[in-house]
Amino acid sequence: MTQANTGTRFFFDVFDGSRFDHDEIGTVLASRDEVRVQSTTLLPALASDVLPDGNHRTFVVRVRDESGRYIFEATMVMSTGFLD
Amino acid sequence: MAEEVNPLIRALEQYDVLSDEERDALRALPLRTRLLQKNEEIIREGDRPTHSCLLVAGFAARTQNLEDGKRQITNLHAPGDFVDLHSLLLKRMDHNVIAFSDCEVAFIPHGALRELIDRHNHLSRLLWVTTLVDAAIDRAWITCLGRRPAIDHLAHFICELFTRLKGRGLNDGNSILFGATQVELGDILGMSTVHVNRTIQDLRKLGLIDWEAGRVTIRDFDRLADRAGFDPAYLNQWVEPR
After folding, report:
1. What is the nearest CA distance from B69 to chain A, expressed in angstroms?
2. InterPro entries, per this entry (chain A) (predicted)?
């Protein structure tokens, strides 16, 4: 897997409600703004990947920069349940 | 004798036996070769090509660009594929074709292709098969884009690419050379870069693939195909009178 040549590497740690994944490889993005775009498109994609069971599930993406500092967090809560 | 036609001969021989006369007719096609660098345009949307372009080495991609600068890669082509045989009949290109890696291509005048088709009905049918298989691949991609979860979709893409290349002897054991960036894979799979990255790690952790420095290695094809729901029948890679 080759990455884009220019940009900064960010690490996207993911908690999908049951499993915490520490991103050891990272993704090179052209700008810091891309961190938000990537995180907000990743969350619903994670939800459809794991097909949540149960009524409540929280998905969290926490993003580290190259120094290891957390710089961004996005959370999506899925609440489901029959109304009757 | 044009060596550049050999990948096409190998591609057509996946579907049926060619006679010596047919092979000679293909080798006699007039062609002009060009070396292209990655990302160079081969054909642009709106063009009215007078030649069809045969991919001799490397990968080419069909792309459709969106108004907001995003793009979707709608198909990949391997050596031996005509990337725009349909321009012979459709005339006006409705999408772009770009060099996905450094490429060697051969341009063949439409007049010469028309003459070949007029003289050799069987070759004409085999060229038709190639466009039908392209359409079958498009159907498989649509189903993956629309319905398969990310990990199954990526698994399906890898199975398909490996099987297509293997059919032409372009694999290296269980590996293929495929130097795509994560952004490009995202454009193929309709996924964000980070999601692509994560999905590759998932397949790796399952022990199904390795993906290092432009080399994809399949650790267990049967399990990968099972994961993907991959049935190679749509690729039509068997010899039968056609």
Report:
1. 14
2. DUF6894 (IPR054189)
